[in-house]
Amino acid sequence: MEILPSQEPISFFQNWLKEAEKSELNDPEAMSLATVGDGGAPSVRMVLLKGVDLAGFRFYTNGESRKAREISRNPAAALCFHWKALGRQVRVEGRLSKLPEAEVEAYFQTRHPLSKLGAWASRQSEPLESRAALEAKVAEYEKKFEGREILKPPYWAGYLLNPEKIEFWQEGKGRLHDRFLFTRKGGGWDLQRLNP
User: Fold this and answer.
1) Which terminal CB of the chain, N or C, has fewer other CB atoms within 10 Å?
2) Catalytic sites, residue numbers
3) What is the distance, to the nearest Å, from the Cα of residue 32 to the centroid of all Cα atoms in its chain?
4) What does the pLDDT look like over 138-174, one tens digit per residue?
5) Mind listing the domains of the chain with CATH numbers?
6) Cα(133)–Cα(135) distance, integer angstroms
């Protein structure tokens, strides 16, 4: 792998993601999202990347979920993409901010109808009596929205991670991996090669 110092890391990431879309069997846009939990403890889960550009990395979720509560208390976060077929990973660190309502609404309307109903039915991260109780809630909202557009719940939110560091990791023989770290500096990026 060769990364030239003149390269900008977002476009480089976009190229890697395109390659992953051809090689990974499932969800090449899957990423681990680490936030800061209670008492400063780390908290991590998998989410799906729903857009990336020079502004940063986007994802959407229930704005009343555990992750959303953690983000509201401390916006520092990290992402990790792992593409096993390519022997690659990308680590991203930065701060999260909420996306504008219009952007969240536009994304929500692209979701599968069952996913939209699930957003209404699920009190994400809260205790659940049974699977049957969840299915009953979905049926309730299916009836409510029958023949109508399924609107975005008021608590549904989108987040943008504005990257401060982006590390590219390429597997090497004998664990002699290639690692390159981009660190935001002013309006540009510093680039360093790291030891494996």
Assistant:
1) C
2) 175
3) 7
4) 999 999 999 999 999 999 999 999 999 999 999 999 9
5) 9-109+154-194 (2.30.110.10), 111-151 (no CATH)
6) 5
